Amino acid sequence: MSKKALILVDIQNDYFEDGAWPVHKMERAAENAARLLEDARANGDTIVHIRHEIPSDEAPFFRPGSEGAQHHSSVAPQPGEPVILKHKANSFQDTSLKQDLDAAGVTDVVICGAMSQMCIDATTRAASDFGYAVTVVEDACGAKEASFGGVTLDAGQVHAAFMAPLAMSYAKVVTTGDFLGD
């Protein structure tokens, strides 16, 4: 029998409109993540909140101890729900995430949060590599515009460019409505 965990990645104040590093459609992503969180709580699924800090007072966002590095109120952890602090894009790297999931008997992970092109991508690939059955709820994820080699992509293009390969090889990629059966 499979056991599911919801992993909420970096849904933190700095990614919202008044934060230091706003992410496109983060409010919508957080609303959908809150629906997933409510469902996971109702079903008794394992819930893991991931919080990113960049260990430097010079960091452009997620500075240690700042209000921007705190969880957004829409998905605030309840007592007893684990919070894992990370310093890298991959939520498994140098954290207890894998050990915690394995200790809980988790076989299936559901991932949401931000940013699609960084922490969601890295965490999803790692989860797949570790053998978990992975679902990414794409409209509960947020992306940011990006430029490289003289090409600029808007946030929607960046999001699609990362969801497509995840869907092809690493995860089942669904909407919140599909996941919840709306």
Keywords, separated by commas or semicolons:
single chain, 182 residues, alpha/beta, Rossmann fold, two-stranded antiparallel ribbon, 8 strands, 32% helix, Cysteine hydrolase family protein, Isochorismatase-like_sf, Isochorismatase-like_dom
What report would you give on this structure?
- The protein has 182 residues and is an alpha/beta fold.
- The chain has a single domain, classed as Isochorismatase-like (Rossmann fold, 3-Layer(aba) Sandwich), CATH 3.40.50.850.
- Helices cover 32% and strands 24% of the residues.
- It has helices at residues 26-43, 97-103, 116-129, 155-169, 176-180; strands at residues 4-9, 46-52, 83-86, 108-114, 133-142, 146-148, 151-153, 172-174.
- The chain has a 6-stranded parallel sheet.
- Strand 1 (4-9), helix 1 (26-43) and strand 2 (46-52) form a beta-alpha-beta unit.
- Helix 3 (116-129) packs parallel to helix 4.
- The longest helix is centred in the first third of the chain and has 18 residues, at 26-43.
- The mean pLDDT is 97.
Q: How far apart, in Å, are the first and last alpha carbons?
A: 24 Å
CATH homologous superfamily grouping: Isochorismatase-like
Largest sheet: 6 strands, parallel
Strand order of the largest sheet: 3-2-1-4-5-8
Number of strands: 8
- Stretches where pLDDT is under 50 for at least 5 consecutive residues are none
How many structural domains are formed by the residues? Answer: 1
User: In the CATH classification, which architecture applies?
Assistant: 3-Layer(aba) Sandwich
Mean of pLDDT: 97
Mass-distribution shape: globular
SSE pattern = EHEEHEHEEEHEH
Strand content: 15-25%
What structural class should be given to the helix and strand makeup? alpha/beta
